[in-house]
Amino acid sequence: MPGLTTDGSALDALSDAVDEVNVLKGKLWHEEPEVEATKDKDSFRQYDNACERVKSFYKEQHEKQTVAYNIKARVDFKSHTRARMGIWQAMEMLNTLVDESDPDTDMSQIEHLLQTAEAIRRDGKPEWMQVAGLIHDLGKLLLFFGSEGQWDVVGDTFVVGCAFSDKNIYPETFEGNPDSRDAVYSSKYGIYEPNCGLENVMMSWGHDEYMYHVIKDQSTLPYEALAMIRYHSFYPWHRENAYMHLTNAKDMIALEAVRAFNPYDLYSKSNEPCDVEKLRPYYEGLIAKFFPPEIDW
Ligand SMILES: O[C@H]1[C@H](O)[C@@H](O)[C@H](O)[C@@H](O)[C@@H]1O
Ligand SMILES: [Fe+2]
Ligand SMILES: [Fe+2]
Predict the structure, then answer these.
(1) Which atom of ligand 1 is nearest to the CA of 137?
(2) Which end of the chain is more exposed for a tag (fewer CB within 10 A), N or C?
(3) What is the pLDDT of residues 280-289, one digit of tens each?
(4) What is the DSSP string of 84-138?
């Protein structure tokens, strides 16, 4: 700040205050997530014995998510606004989608969003985190906004532009991706510098990345909420520790956030359906705290 002089003791006081805020924040959301699941937690994400629908989804996705496609998707995204509507309206619009990549839920998307948010709320987590749960999959609206299929909307995400990690689901299916035969794109660092930070890498295009770009300047949600949304499908990273050679110190904050969020997203899928109309007033109140009535999509 121009003209502001800070002596040593003012800096100490500031750093104490930051510590205090972190402790408070920590109490609120880093602590061990407690989420009930009505089935065994190890029975989620069983891809070896998943149905054909899931297997053929990933084969197609892994073959088609190339660097060239990802650049095109970002240019398309920036070139126009697809819709203007509020968050609740977006949730209703999404409701007709059946996610072909998901072995764990047959529920509608609005149910899944409310189940995630409700699990976070029951565990006493802050409002911004409940909102992150409520909206984290809204990027699947891409399907109604001219996506090429489900392969560029849903499923786990990974990095393009460098070697595909074998910690991805069905890693052998990347053989059909032309980038795996490109000398640069198939090397460990590819087009990236070591530890350049995830902000500087190109994630496979889909609902996480799209939703992050939609809300980053249109809501007052904190960085941790944006990270939860942007990386919630990046299982090879947040669950398997892959791609760490590209991450930096800031990403460790994102990682902590995504790991705190993940159990609510995954394990709430087995829970009882929610009463949408009963919950609506509560969540509309929360949405209004972080979003204007309508946003650009
Ligand atoms: O099946 C997918 C899963 O692989 C993703 O990681 C998740 O974010 C999607 O919402 C889901 O439905
Ligand atoms: Fe998702
Ligand atoms: Fe989800």
Answers:
(1) 10
(2) N
(3) 999 999 999 9
(4) EE-HHHHHHHHTT---TT-SS--S-HHHHHHHHHHHHHHTT--HHHHHHHHHTTG
